[in-house]
Amino acid sequence: MKVIYRALTRELLQNIGLSIAFLNAILIIEKLFKLSKIFASVGIDLLNLVLLILLLQPQLLIFTIPMALLLSILLTYGRTQADNEMTIFMVSGMPYKKTFKPAIYIGLIAFFFTVLMSFYLAPTGVSLVREKILTILAERAPLGLEEGVFNQGFKDVTIFVKEKPDSLHLKEVVIFDERKNDTKIVIAKGGLIKKERDNINLSLLNGKAYFNKGLTLNEVSFKEYIFRLSPNIDPIAKKVSELSLFELISKIQTEEVKAIDYKLELYKRFALPLLCIVSVFLAPSLCLIVGKTGRIGGITVGLAIFAFYYILMIYGANLAKAGKVSAEIGSLLPVIVMAILAFTMYTRIRK
């Protein structure tokens, strides 16, 4: 029996690894698209791109680990049924539910690993990604400002540089700033690029600034004017998903207006790890449905289950935001439904 457990464990781990790699590769495409928009004007080297992808992995693994766990169980045990190995196990005296013992242990490990990802590694990873992007943009900002070109690499700011003697010095600079309601135009004879952690500053020399306020136009002359540029990082700017557990609890207590969003995020972080446990008890029944269709049937059923889960997750969140149910019910609705389904089907197997 130990030999059977070892063989099943080995196959389960292989399938989990392949499933995570496949699912993460699909999800990372969206992240790469966002990164390409951020670095469109300055570019990014391969080493920093790989580092950003690695930092994004915890955020992706929260979703892919439960999905990969269910898929791996369906693939492994679907294959045993297709090859009649499950029939041999049962004929030799091994009960059907006992063959899933390795899956239960792996499910518990996946649960604790997902908890770690959900409450610590994912928020930390997103924070590090934002800091790394700011650093890269600050380092490569001089490359993005090309001479003789209207540079639009910064949100709501257009910069024209007539000459660029080197990577840091500028000549004949024109800036059109639309970040506020009052449009601002700055014209300077020269400039110097200065880098900071969160911003990129242009030290503009000997010029004029024009401020448009309603129907009036104000003109200001200057010898030096510090113009701050904020990198365009809207796609991954700090969001609710980046807050730590204690930050979420604090926000719930202090910000009543957005409390529902913070509560939904908090309970969602509990729900996703619990999905690992639910998947382990749901899988034996699903394997009977898969039958002898093998791996193809396992993939089809697994993806259908998770499509159903995410539809319920979105539906529950919308109900909570509309005030029809509490945030707890809205966030945990898909897990509750799947847990009831798993319990019902698992009880039938035992009978």
From TrEMBL:
<feature type="transmembrane region" description="Helical">
    <location>
        <begin position="329"/>
        <end position="349"/>
    </location>
</feature>
<dbReference type="InterPro" id="IPR005495">
    <property type="entry name" value="LptG/LptF_permease"/>
</dbReference>
<feature type="transmembrane region" description="Helical">
    <location>
        <begin position="102"/>
        <end position="122"/>
    </location>
</feature>
<feature type="transmembrane region" description="Helical">
    <location>
        <begin position="12"/>
        <end position="29"/>
    </location>
</feature>
<feature type="transmembrane region" description="Helical">
    <location>
        <begin position="270"/>
        <end position="291"/>
    </location>
</feature>
<dbReference type="GO" id="GO:0015920">
    <property type="term" value="P:lipopolysaccharide transport"/>
</dbReference>
<keyword id="KW-1003">Cell membrane</keyword>
<dbReference type="GO" id="GO:0043190">
    <property type="term" value="C:ATP-binding cassette (ABC) transporter complex"/>
</dbReference>
<protein>
    <submittedName>
        <fullName>Permease YjgP/YjgQ family protein</fullName>
    </submittedName>
</protein>
<feature type="transmembrane region" description="Helical">
    <location>
        <begin position="60"/>
        <end position="82"/>
    </location>
</feature>
<keyword id="KW-0472">Membrane</keyword>
<keyword id="KW-1133">Transmembrane helix</keyword>
<dbReference type="Pfam" id="PF03739">
    <property type="entry name" value="LptF_LptG"/>
</dbReference>
<feature type="transmembrane region" description="Helical">
    <location>
        <begin position="297"/>
        <end position="317"/>
    </location>
</feature>
<keyword id="KW-0812">Transmembrane</keyword>
